[in-house]
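During the reporting period the student researcher (J.K.) took over the structure-prediction task from the postdoctoral fellow and processed the backlog of single-chain submissions. One of the processed entries is reproduced below for the supervisory committee.
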Amino acid sequence: MSRIDYWHTINPAFGARKLSKIIKKEDGLSVGRKLAASTMETMGIVSKAPKPNTSMPNKEHKKFPYLLRKKQIWFPNQVWAIDITYIKMGKSHMYLTAIIDWYSRYIVGWALSHTLDKAPVIEAVEEAIKKCGVPSILNSDQGSQFTSVEYVNLLKKYHIRQSMDGKGRWIDNVIIERWFRSLKCEEIYINEYLSPKSLKKGISEYIVLYNDIRPHDSLQDNTPKHTYFNIFLKTA
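J.K. obtained the following structure tokens:
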């Protein structure tokens, strides 16, 4: 699972067949296509090439259109993106739900869980709204957590427009995908977290570094926190 997560983070388009070959060649592990495919299903991911989507959808749930194609993002809280990713933890693992503001790249909310459940997704959204207010649009993939009645009703409660990636189009939610890659390459893979407490502490410290301290080229060398809150101050 650890190596599948690593190579999937490097290139989300790799499928089970490609991953099994890479893991055999680069990591020296005997992994067949079927084992790679079943492990990916357990982790809640599949290839993000134009084929089945990253999270497992529920066919009975309603899907929503993608609202961000050619849309200009002018200010914070105009668009947020939410997603879930697998996190290695010693011999176990957890799942991280994170929400990012598209305009400023500011991480507005997050939650850790042992399972791929809708509860931490709801928790992350509620936390983000309490901390940062209500976005106009919240984009996600087509995973069952984001098509659940509870999630859909939560967004309706706050009058948030729900947007969803096109099937298999990981590029539609590329902002949060890139942040997950940075988190894993810069923090998760170089540390051996052995408990949920230490993992949560490490992620929390990384988010503070990312949000508050590190400048971004795409933000004219400002930090996400400065960009997010400074625009609100100027508007006020």
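The committee noted the following: Residues 196-213 form the longest helix (18 residues).
J.K. will present the remaining backlog at the next meeting.
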